[in-house]
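Researcher: We're reviewing a set of sequences before deciding which ones to prioritize for further study. For each one, I'd like a predicted 3D structure that I can look through quickly. This is Acyl-CoA N-acyltransferase. If possible, include the structure in token form so it fits the rest of the review sheet.
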Amino acid sequence: MTTIQTPEYRFRSQRLVYRSPEDSDSDKAFYQHQILNDPTIQSMSSLRLKGPVAKKSAEEMINIMQEKTLLGVVICLPHPEQSPGQDSKPKPIPIGQLALFNMGMGPSHHHRHATLGISLVDGYRGKGYGGEAINWILDWAFMHAGLHRVGLDAFSFNENGLKLYRKLGFVEEGRQREVIRHLRGWHDVIKFSMLEDEWEKLRGFGQEQKE
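Model: Here's the predicted structure for Acyl-CoA N-acyltransferase, in token form for your review sheet.
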């Protein structure tokens, strides 16, 4: 079992805390410079033509995270000077973003499906934060949001991401062949998903808990 099931762990995990994106200068700068203009994030998570992204796009992204996701959060590390029981200052350090999108379903929420998206900024990849954050949002999705399925897309050249998603228990459903042009080569989009009963098995739920 994971700690996400208890209220005190609703918006934090072992090493990370999760907060809503804010319409603030600091969050706009974070999204513009560390998310949208990061060349690795552009290559791994976007189909748009690569290039500089203006401040307006950062504002639009924050609005999407706030208004057009089932859940959209900034992944943060607790500030090293913050101690247990201290108030909200100093603020946590943002290191990425995480969201569940209701992709292609419009208002049909009864399908109980969402698509997961995650990005980590340079300097915080390869440290296990991505796996921790994904496990946290999977627990939130199936424990608190009542979802039945969480989908995930990955580009075939993202070898580290593919290894992580399979390790976390995502099942490969299929692929769109050669739809990504990257560094003068053609690459696939690989479709992953996790179903509610698969998550239950991973978390050790018994039949009596399922009922």
